[in-house]
Amino acid sequence: MPSIDPARKKNLLSRLSRIEGQIRGISRMIEDEQYCIDVLNQISAARSALNSVGQIMLEGHIKGCVTDAIQHGVGDASIDELMDAIKKYTF
Fold first, then answer.
1. CA max distance for the chain
2. How far apart are CA 53 and CA 17, in angstroms?
3. Which of 25, 29, 61, 89 is 20 to 30 A from 37 in CA distance terms?
4. Rounded distance, CA 37 to CA 44, Å?
5. Cβ distance 66 to 82 under 8 Å?
6. pLDDT, position 1
7. Where are the domains of the chain?
8. Between the CA atoms of 57, 70, 68 and 55, what dihedral angle is there, to the nearest 10 degrees?
9. Contact 64/2 with Cβ under 8 angstroms?
10. Distance between CA 54 and CA 75 in Å, rounded?
11. Per-residue pLDDT tens for 23-79?
12. Is 81 exposed, middle or buried (0-12, 13-18, 19+ CB in 10 A)?
């Protein structure tokens, strides 16, 4: 299994750190009884940021793991696994 490119890994960890901060901020907003729409807007922003991380991971998986599996003759299993992941990720 190919490893994550160091630059991509740094990018992903940085994004996740920011998302973690967003989630803590949402918790504080709820504790402070902030206006519901403001909380919902922050939840939407955090969800969007997490989806971006997922897209980056999915792209890396396709370009790395799936490509590698196809080149080594086990592409069908990898594609099936990919399809399952896409179903979970998108629905």
1. 56
2. 11
3. 89
4. 10
5. yes
6. 55
7. 6-90
8. -10
9. yes
10. 22
11. 999 999 999 999 999 999 999 999 999 999 999 999 999 999 999 999 999 999 999
12. middle
- Enumerate the H helices of the chain as residue ranges: 6-31, 36-61, 67-71, 75-90
Q: How far apart are CA 63 and CA 28, in angstroms?
A: 39
Domain boundaries 6-90, corresponding CATH code: 1.20.58.1000
In angstroms, the CA 56 to CA 9 distance is 10
Q: Does residue 3 carry a pLDDT above 80?
A: no
Q: Hey, is 84 helix, strand or coil? A: helix
